[in-house]
Amino acid sequence: MRIPEPTLDGVAEARKKFIEQVDPTNLFYRAATKLVELALSEAREADSLTLAEAVGVLLKTWNDGFYRFGHAKFDKEHLGKIQELMDSPELNLLSFRERSLESLHSEEESSIKTIFESFEKVLGTIGAAKCLHLLAPQFFPLWDRDIAHGYQIYPQKRGTNGENYVKFVNKTREQIEKLKREGFRYEDSLKALDEYNWIHAHQNKRRKSRQP
């Protein structure tokens, strides 16, 4: 089923449902966000957290199935691969950290595709979006497969979904721009929109599974 286009009231209602039914405290998200800030502020200190370790707090909870089903081991080597991607001058990830999604230019789409596929090969389709979002929470939107399907986007083999993610990025940008013209004023706008998508995608899925 398609996810309906978000409205101001719809996003507010979905946030309330998300807090009540899914994550009352947003604990892991808030913790990982703070740890990323800490890792960036203490980057030159010998005993500081690495960015990969900070992001790993969320990946191990939000993306647990990726590890539980054997796609990768959550170990030092895995964290090292994530850190290599974050440190890559070619990907230049931190240049997106202070940007909003509305600032995306069409000529940057090929870079977003490359960045996403590089992370997807290490973290999977869902984990890549979660990791990128933590690094640039106002630029990279969150998704999972149910949400993607709700927008008629169908991820394929791991490491090949950069174009699909760019489609989702552009769709999200259109939604954010429209909502902001109508008075959308969330500081965590992409997180709020993800909660809206999650409620609609997963509630629809549960309703369908209960049908005789």
From TrEMBL:
| Superkingdom of origin organism | Bacteria
**What is this protein's name?**
Uncharacterized protein
